[in-house]
Each structure stands twice: as structure tokens, then as C-alpha cells.
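[09:14] KT: can someone run the structure on this one? pasting the chain below
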Amino acid sequence: MNLSRFLVAVPRKGQLISTEEREVCCAPTELDTVFAAWPSNFQSIYIEFRLQAFDQILWRKALFLKLCIPKAFANLHNLRSLDLSFCSLRGVIPDLSTMQMLEALRLEKNFLSGTIPTSLKHLRHLKVLDLSGNRFVGSIPRVLCVHLVCLECLDLSNNCLTGVIPREIGSLSQLRELHLKRNKLEGCIPGEIGSLMNLEILQLGDNLLRGQIPRTFTTLHHLEEVGLTGNYVNLFLPHEILRGSQVWRILMVNRLPNMVSLAICSVMAAVYLDCFLDAVFRAVYLHLRLH
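[09:31] RB: done, C-alpha cells below
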């Protein structure tokens, strides 16, 4: 391989580069896709001279020679956005806790496995965490819900996560999107989700959830999209939700038959039953008077 044509494009340490070049690195070079297979000390040198200058690395659909997340990425202390989606990556997420400035971490549609690392709790500026479409197992780490207070989008859908939805999720006050669909989550939907006043999208479908829709959902005034089907959630809606709340309106618009129609039918059945019993009592009364 001719290395000279790649090294020319690599800024030397201390060399001034344009503002535009500093912002985004979208197209990985051939060396970018193979350096993960080098010894760790060579990886660190390459990171320092090649990638330190960038604020964002957006390498969607890149094909790495070694199909794992390079550990040397942890040396990018000033990086704000890392996107390695659709890269066929395998293995586990390395320790990225030193990337203190990271605001967006997107690793969707790979083959990453293991548990979601608790070390991600150190990324306190993180606004977007997308780990969807992988093979993660275990429970949702409670510490992430406690420490990642800047999160606006959390997407853990399409994995193999188990356990319950942690009540600490109500601490993510800035959250606008919560995607947990297509896992193996169980237990009841925590009422603490009702504390997420900025929530716009809530996707919990295709899990093993049970119970009923929490009454606290009536406070989610900004909600625009709800997905709850494919669970064992109680089909009868709480009466507070039947009073024109935002959740009720969304369910009506989406015509979710197993959550809305049955609730309507239950009300209508009660009305018809009351009319029927009234008619029976009247008939019995008249029969007794005539005899």
C-alpha cells in the first residue's frame, strides 16, 4: 500500500487547518478503516495526528478491517459527535469515559454485544445516545438515568434487553424521545415517565410489559407519538385518560384497537347492561302487580 498519499492529508501536530476541516470528518480514508488493527501505541499516534482536529466524526457505513470500535477513540477528548452506525461492528463498547465533551454517540445497526457499559455515565454532556439495532443484553443501567441528565434522545430499541424499565428514567428531564421497543423488558410501565414533561415520542412496543397505562401520563402534554402494542398492558384505560388527555387523543388518532376500542366498548357495555337491568326490573314489577 502506498502510504504517502494518505500521510499528505494528515495534519502535522500544531499545523493550522481551516475551520471547516475542523468541524466534520465524514469520509474515512483507507487508513482510517485499518488503524484499529494496529498496536495500541500506533493507534494513539494516528489518532493524535489524524483525528484530534475534528469536532465530529460521522463514519456511517464505513467498513473497518478489524470489526470493532477502536479503543483509541477514547483519546479524542474534544470530540462532540461520533457516528459509527451501519458499520457491521462487533464486540463490546470500549471505555469511552474520557470523551467528556461528547454530545452525540450513534452506534445503531451494528452487531455489538454484551451489556450496556456503565462507564457511559461519565459522558455528562451527552444529548443523543443511540444503541438501537444491536445485540445488547442485560438490564438498562440505572446509573445512566441518574447521570446523563442532558439526554434528549435515548434509543435502545431492537436489542435483547431484559429486566424492568428503571424508575430513575424519570430523572432525564430533558428527554424528548424514548425508544425501548422490541426488547424483552418486563414489569409495569413506571409512572415516573410522567415526569418527562418534554417527552414527544414514547415507543415501548413489543416487550413483555404488563399492568396499565400510568395515570401520570396525563401530564405529558407535548407527546406526539406513542407505541405500546405487543405487550400485556391492561386493555382498560384509567378514567383520567378517558377525559381528553393528550395520550387519549394520540391513541384515538392511531386507532389502537386493543387499547382504545375495548375501553369504549366497556363503557358502552356498562350503559347497555344498565338499560337491560332496568328493563328486567320493570318487567318483574309489572308481573307482580298483575298477579
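[09:33] KT: thanks! Helices lie at 4-7, 19-23, 40-51, 142-147, 246-254, 257-290.
[09:34] RB: yep, looked fine to me
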